[in-house]
Records
---
Amino acid sequence: MKEGNGVKKAIDAASSELNLADEGSKADKYYRGFIALSRVSAAISGLHELDAILKIGLDNVLNIMNGAVGGIMLLDEPSQTLFYRVYHGLSDKYAEEMRLKLGEGIAGKVAQSGRAVLLEDISSEPSAARIDLIGSEGLRAFISVPLRAKDNVLGVMNVASRVPHHFSKEDVHILHSIGDQLGTAIEQAMLQERLRKARERLRKLARQNLVAEEEERRRIARELHDETSQSLSGIALQLEALVEMAAKSSNQDAQFIDGLKKVQSLTVQVHKEVSRVIANLHPTVLDTLGLVAAVRQHAKNTLQPLNINVTIEVKGTERRFPADVEAALFRVIQGSIGNIAEHSKARNASIVLVYQPDEFSLSISDDGQGFDVSKLTDVEASGRGRGLFSMRERIGSLGGTSGVESKIGAGTTVWAKIPMGQDIRYGENKGTGS
C-alpha cells in the first residue's frame, strides 16, 4: 500500500510539473506574440510612405519567424489581381510572375475569404498556383494571412520556409495579429498616397491652366503689337506729316492745324497705352532677357513715376528657367508691384531674388500702410484678396510655398519659394544687384 502511495505521489508530481511546463509554454507563446506585435508596431509607428511600411513590417516579421522568406502582396482593385509589392528571400522571377486573381491559389483564396492558411508543405498542395515557381524556389512550409482594415482585405502577407513543418499554429496567430495591424497602417498610407496623387493632379492641372493663360496673353500681346500698335504708329506718323504740311501751306487754318495736333497727341497717347497693355500682358524682355530684366523694367516703369523708390537685389547665380516657370514668377512679382502702386502709400520698396542650387526664393517689401492679414482669408466680393489667392495658386502649381506678412502701419512683405530640380532649370547668367 505504501508502495502504491509512492507511485501515486510520483505520478502527481510529474503531472504537476507537466502542467507547470504547459502553463509556462502558454505564457511563453503569449509573451512571444506580444513582443512580436510590439516590435512591428514600434517599427512602423510614424511611417506614412506605403513602401516603407511594407518593407519594415516585412523585415520585422521575417526576423520574428527565424529564417523565413516571404513577401507582401497587395490587391489591385481594378483588375482584382494580387501582386508582390515587397519581398525578401524570393527571386525577382518568382515575385514578378506570381500574380494571382482573387480566389486563385492559396494567397488568392486567403484574400477572398479573409482567413489565414497554414501549410506544412506547399510544394505538394494541389490547390497551390504556379507549382513550377514554388518548386524552383524550393518553398515548403507556408503561411498566408490577410491584411485587413476593418472589413476590407487589402492584400496578403506570405511567409515561407524551405524546410517543411517549420511553422506552428502559434505562428499563424502571431502573423494574423500583425497582419491586422499592418492592414490598418497600409490603409492609412494608401489614403495618404491617393491624397498626394490627387494634389499632384490638381497642381499639374493648375499649371496647365496657367500655361494656357500665359499663351493666350502672349498671343493677344503679339497681335496687339503686330496689328494695333503698328497701325497706331503709322497713323501718328501720318498725322505728324499732315501737321507739317498744313503749317507750310499758304492757306493756313490755325483751328484745323490745332485739331490735327490734338488728334496726333491723342494717337500718341493711345499708342503708349497700348504699349503698356502689351507689356503687362506679356513683356517681350521676359522672353529675351529673362526674369530679372523683366522685373527691373516693370518695377521701375510702374513705381518710379509714383515717386516710390525701388531697389532690386539678386543673390546667387542668376539662371534662366523654363518659360512657364518664369512667367508664373513674373506674374507673382507683377501683382505685388501692382498692390504697392495702388494700395500701399509707400515711399520705398525692395525686391530680392535669391538663386540657390535647390531653391529659388523671392520677397517684395514696402514701407507702406500695411493691412491686417488675419482679416483677409478669402477672395472678397469686391475682388480684394484675389491677388494673394492667385499668388498661392501660381506658386503652388510649381510645388512651392508662399505667404504674406503685414501689419497696419508697418508695411507689407510678400514672399515665395519654389524647389529647383535639374529638370526645371537651364542656362546661366551672373546676377547683379541694383
---
Amino acid sequence: MKNSILFLAFLLLSSVGLSAQKEYKATHEGWLVNIDDAYALSKKTGKPILANFTGSDWCGWCKRLSAAVFNKPDFKSWAEDNVVLLELDFPRRKQIPDEIRQQNQSLQRAFQVRGYPTVWVFNLDKDESKGGFVIEALGKTGYTATLEEFTSGVDQMISRGGKGK
C-alpha cells in the first residue's frame, strides 16, 4: 500500500555541502549518502530509492544483513537494475559530517524508524510550493536471512507501487 508523506524539514538537506559529501563515503560501495544525490539519480533513472537505516559499526543485525544481502555480487547486480541505494548510517564510533547526521536524523523521524536495520523503499518528488519533498512510501523491511528473500520482498513493494515516476 502506498503512503504519501509530506516532509517539509528537508530544507536542511539542501545544506549538505559538497565537501562533506566528498569526504564521507557509505560503508558499501555503490551506495549514496546524500538524499539530494539519491533524488537526482532516482529522477534520472526512474527507479525508486532503497534507503538502509543502519548502525554500521555497532548493530549486529545490520552486519548480518550486510553479509547476507548487501555484500553479495548478485545484490549489486539486482540493485543496479532496480533501485537507487541510499545509506543512512547512525554509527557510534565512526564520525560523520554534521550535515549528514542531521539529514539522517530527519529521515529517521520522517519514516518513524525505531530500530535497525530498517530498509524503506520509496519514490521522492519535490514540492516546490512548500520547499520540501513528498515521499511516496512503497514499503519497508528489516533483517532478512537471504538475498532471495530480500530482493523478492523489495520487488513486490516496487511492483505494487510502480517503478519511479
